[in-house]
Each structure stands twice: as C-alpha cells, then as structure tokens.
Amino acid sequence: MELNTRKQYLLVIIAALGYFVDIYDLTLFGIVRKPSLLNLGIAESELRTVGSFLLNWQMTGMLLGGLLFGIFGDIKGRVSVLFGSIFLYSAANIANGFVETIPQYAALRFIAGIGLAGELGAGITLISETMSKEKRGWGTMIIVTFGALGAVLSSLIGDKFHWRTAYFVGGALGLALLVLRVGTYESGMFNQVKQSGVKRGAFHLIFTKKESALKYLWCVFIGIPIWYIIGILIIFSPELSKAMQVDGVVHAPRAVMFAYLGLSAGDLLSGLFSQLIGSRKKVVIGFIAASVLAISYYLFVPGMSLNTFYLMCFVLGTSTGYWAIFATIAAEQFGTNIRATVATTVPNFVRGSVLLLTAGFNFLAPDFGLITAAAIVGAVSISLALIGTLSIKETFGKDLDYLEDMG
Predict the structure, then answer these.
(1) Mean pLDDT for the stretch of residues 189-203
(2) 0.85 cut: is pTM over it?
(3) Are the beta carbons of 201 and 340 closer than 8 angstroms?
(4) CA–CA dist 94, 330 (Å, integer)
C-alpha cells in the first residue's frame, strides 16, 4: 500500500525533522556534560565517572523506551509512537533545565531516554512501508543525513548558551514539532495488518526460534561500532585528547559537532552507494573497514594539533555514517506485524550498548590507560559488527508486505 508521491515527500520531511530534534536532544548531554556538572558542584576529577553514570541512565531509559515504543508501534500504530515519544522527551528536557542535584539529573535523563527511543524506529518503519522497495533507501538516507545535523545545532547552542537554556531549546523544538506532526499519515501496510487481527508486537516470540533470534542479534551487532565511536571516542574526547597529547584543549561541543557533520556526510555517501550498487551489506563492510583505519589513527598517532584532532572527529563520524543503512536493514529483516518493534528496539539496544562499552572502558582504564582501554573496547565492537554483517541476509529491494510467523 503506497501513498501518492506528495504524501511520501511529506512523510520524509516530517520524519527528517523529527530525527533532527531527536539527535539534538540525544547528543545534548554529551555537549553540556562538563559545564552542567561543574555548575552542580562536581569536581573536575569526577567528571568522567559522574558523566558515565548519567549517560548510562539515559541509555537505560532508551533500552526500556525502545521496547515499550516498539511494541506500542506494532499494536497501536507508527504515528502514535511518533507523537508519544516527542512529547515525553520534550517535557523531560524542559524539566532538565531546572535540575539542582545529580539524582534529579539522572531521573530526567532516564525519562528523556525513554522518549528519545521511539522516534527513529517509528520513522524508519513508516517510510519503509510507504515507499517502493526500490526507493525506500533514498527516504531513509534523507531522514538520517538531515537528522544527524541536529547534533550540529545542539553543539552550537550548548557552546554559546547556558546549559539550562540548551535543554529548554530542545524541549521547545520538540513541542513545536508536535504541531507539524498532526498531518502525518499512518502506514497502509500496518492498517491492513491491524484489520486482519493477526498477533502484533510479540517481541518475546522473536527469541523462541533460533533463526529469528540470531537474525535479531546480528542486526544489533552491526551498529555497535557507531556508538562505540560516539559514546567513547567523541563524548570522552576531552579526557582522551589529554592522554593522546593533543596540542591544545579539546572542547566536547566542537568534537560532537565535527563528528556529526561527518556522520551526516557518511550517511549521504552510504545511502548513495547502497542505491547505486544495489547492496546494503557491501556498503556496511566498507564503512566498518574505514572506521578501523580512522580509530587506529585517532588513538595511536600522538601529538596531533587541535585542528587535526577535530578533522579526525569528522573522519570518525564519516566512518560511522552507515546508521541509515543499519536501521533500514533491521526494518527489512522482519514482517509487518513485528517490524516497528524490531526497527525501534534494535537501534536502541545499540545505543544501550554504551552501558557495556563505558563499563568496559572504565574497568580497563585504571590498569591499561585510557588509550589502550579504548582500543580494546573498539576491537571487540568491530569484531561483533563484522560477525553480524557477514551473517545477515541481503535485504536490498526486498518486498516488505508480508507477516512474520509469531507462533
């Protein structure tokens, strides 16, 4: 069931704007981490550990939110998730501007994380089900390429304004987007499945069959290096740059901005390559290989100038620019009755992998040092991604109008 071309364009634009706001809010904590914690009385020596604690609360919220909104998207509809997720993270971010204690900060990052979890999966599912199998890759490419630029705005706002103001801006952008979302159309495939009465959103049943469980696991593995680079190498770039003897002081907002400019460029390139060669797997393998080279240079070439370091942040971001392809692969692996659940939970389990990545990084750092600890965690991340990519089936041009046997 396809919508007419005009409605498809409208859905792509709205989904892209939604992801733009989503990324603004998702990256904002990493940008204002240092000034906000210092303002709340945290000592300079505790910034990394307290920052990891708060980031983990946000990512835990995203794990829970991905599950809740994914199931909700298959039961009630994709559009309902878009409205609910935007409202929740907008309200949480406005409240975040008023925090006075670390427990308050943690609670609101958790709530914001739940809300942030619903946006991407619902948008990717909606576009995948309303555009033709030959063209849907263009739609998801536009969504993620434009949406990644939300991090650029959050970097600029977080760098130029008080950290509380930056949270207020994020909340206001989300509430403004709700007004625009009123004209969003539901997926025709979903409406057909809803009327059929077939079981929908049964997440646990994915794991009752070995084939579907492994397929789901491979999807998660593919995206882990993206959040290793963002969650470790970029978010903690001020601390890592000191260990790397960078000639100058690295500011997190600028590192995030350059990384996401690169990510946007990478998503544009990966989307173009995928459409031109008719493959998603080959493109992902190419970008993983590029990320290995970028990570190696970033970590093991000491004494970089400040400008070179920011250039490497851009290169790292570009090498992770297969997020759109990764999210599309997840959406294309399963039937309509479970697609929103998969497309929403997989990216959020990848984001949630930061919990394990930062735990491993913090555990290894005292004994091995920051650089070696980051390299070990990176090697594990890359290995898992290669296993997942090589194990998954190619889905370019796959017909998505089918149901999953949920037992």
Answers:
(1) 62
(2) no
(3) yes
(4) 32
